[in-house]
Amino acid sequence: MAKVSKYTSKQPDENGVIHWSEDENKIWSELVTRQLACIEGKACDEYLEGLKKINLPHDRIPQLSELNAVLKNTTGWQVTPVPALIDFDEFFRLLANKQFPVATFIRSREEFDYLQEPDIFHEIFGHCAMLTNSDFAEFTHKYGQLGYAAEKKDRVYLARMYWFTVEFGLMQTERGLRIYGGGILSSPGETEYVYSRTPEINPMNVLDVLRTPYRIDIMQPVYYTINSIHDLFDISQLDIMALVEKAKQLGLFEAKFPPKEKIAS
């Protein structure tokens, strides 16, 4: 059964402009202000450099055309509006074509602190700055190509690689632990949690990543670190599908979290 979102993405008008309400712009402004303070001293340099390039407005939700002008000139990527939820086929197809999907809705005040599905704040604030970096952009592009060509049973393994890099990736630097994953960068709770000494933080090993279970609705019990953003480019050059085959043979690691409770129908 397909997941259903309670949110509806806004459609651009004939000029490609999305018309946001005053309250939606205010929610954006409050989210950006809060999260910029939260990631100070924690976000990686590449993210902060990208943030300067995309020059996000703080008082309103940016138009996708504003982001596309910057992304086109840096890495050739674009953001493209999508419904609140898309399937794996479309997700991989877009990434394979250097198009980053952005669901054009913003969370309600009731879900201000936590939202399971990615909204425009998560996608833009969390990911777009990193897409100005050539190593990160190439990794994401190669990932899309692999995923689009992969069989359904292999995509589950690839999803883990995306989860522990693009969404929840960390970097060890000379100045300490830094964040590059958009799932952390856009979440105050996850940002603080990473530095709480509670989670297990391991050096990046692609085979281990492919074998690590995760849940989307909890704080992550384990994260993986790269040493520089160029490590992602190096990973993109590996025979990842051969590693997927090896991961399938070895099996998954034991989950470090309880199973999700099933809701009685």
Polypeptide structure, described:
- The protein has 265 residues and is an alpha/beta fold.
- The protein has helices spanning 22-38, 45-54, 64-74, 88-96, 120-128, 134-149, 152-167, 182-185, 188-194, 206-210, 230-236, 240-250; strands at 78-82, 99-103, 170-173, 176-179, 200-203, 222-226.
- The strands form two sheets. The protein has a four-stranded mixed β-sheet with strand order 4-3-6-5. Strands 1-2 form a two-stranded parallel sheet.
- A hairpin with a 2-residue loop joins β3 and β4.
- α4 (88-96) crosses α6 (134-149), α6 (134-149) packs antiparallel against α7 and α6 (134-149) runs parallel beside α11 (230-236).
- The two termini are 14 Å apart.
List descriptors.
globular; 265 residues; 10% strand; two-stranded parallel ribbon; alpha/beta
Could you estimate the helical fraction of the residues in percent? 40-55%
Strand content: 5-15%
Q: Provide mean pLDDT, rounded.
A: 95
Name the structural class: alpha/beta
Q: Report, as a whole number of angstroms, the end-to-end distance.
A: 14 Å
**Reading side by side through the largest sheet, how are the strands ordered?**
4-3-6-5
List segments where confidence is low: pLDDT < 50 over at least 5 consecutive residues. none
**Biggest sheet, open or closed, and with what strands and sense?**
4 strands, mixed
Give me the strand/helix succession: HHHEHEHHHEEHHEHEHH
Global morphology: globular
Q: Compute the number of helices.
A: 12
Radius of gyration, in Å, reads 18 Å
Number of strands: 6
Write the layout of secondary structure elements.
Layout lengths: L21 H17 L6 H10 L9 H11 L3 E5 L5 H9 L2 E5 L16 H9 L5 H16 L2 H16 L2 E4 L2 E4 L2 H4 L2 H7 L5 E4 L2 H5 L11 E5 L3 H7 L3 H11 L15
Parallel strand pairs: 1-2, 3-6, 5-6
Antiparallel strand pairs: 3-4
Helix pairs in contact: 4-6, 6-7, 6-11
